Amino acid sequence: MLIPKKVKHRKWQKGRGRNVRIASTKINLAFGSYGLKVMTPAYISSRQIEAGRRVLTRYVRKGGKIWIRIFPDRPITKKGNEVPMGSGKGAVDHYVAVVRPGTIIYEMDGVPEEVAKGALILASHKMPAICKFISKE
């Protein structure tokens, strides 16, 4: 699974800018000919990114190249079970990648379009957001 090697701050605050904004980076295909674009805002965990990557590699077998464009760098904390209220913030549980509408999360090249479309649509079923297949035309 993807996690940061080193972080400046172990626990993050939630912040205020949680309204829906459109992505300004990672909006065009940069490496491959086909991609998976997110249409709704979401937190995508490192487990979900890994599940999508496994689907892609198993579907295309030996052919093709896959790029993961997002990285989970935001820590999510959680308190233990049956812990009383108070006594501070919980420990870091997992890491997520914050994606906005329009962000490309996976790219693929070196396979026919129908193979890439099938693989990327299967990977979209693993994501917590609505995703769309795109191609460079």
From TrEMBL:
Any one Gene Ontology BP term: translation
Domain of life of the organism encoding this protein: Bacteria
Transcription in keyword set: no
A Pfam family reported for this protein in Swiss-Prot or TrEMBL: Ribosomal_L16
Gene Ontology CC: ribonucleoprotein complex; ribosome
Annotated keywords: Ribonucleoprotein, Ribosomal protein, RNA-binding, rRNA-binding, tRNA-binding
InterPro entries documented for this protein: Ribosomal_uL16 (IPR047873), Ribosomal_uL16_bact-type (IPR000114), Ribosomal_uL16_CS (IPR020798), Ribosomal_uL16_dom (IPR016180), Ribosomal_uL16_sf (IPR036920)
GO MF terms, alphabetically ordered: rRNA binding; structural constituent of ribosome; tRNA binding
Complexes and interactors: Part of the 50S ribosomal subunit.
Free-text function comment from the UniProt entry: Binds 23S rRNA and is also seen to make contacts with the A and possibly P site tRNAs.
Protein family membership: Belongs to the universal ribosomal protein uL16 family.
Protein known as: Large ribosomal subunit protein uL16
Organism: Candidatus Uhrbacteria bacterium CG22_combo_CG10-13_8_21_14_all_47_17
Lineage: Bacteria, Candidatus Uhriibacteriota
Gene giving rise to this polypeptide: rplP
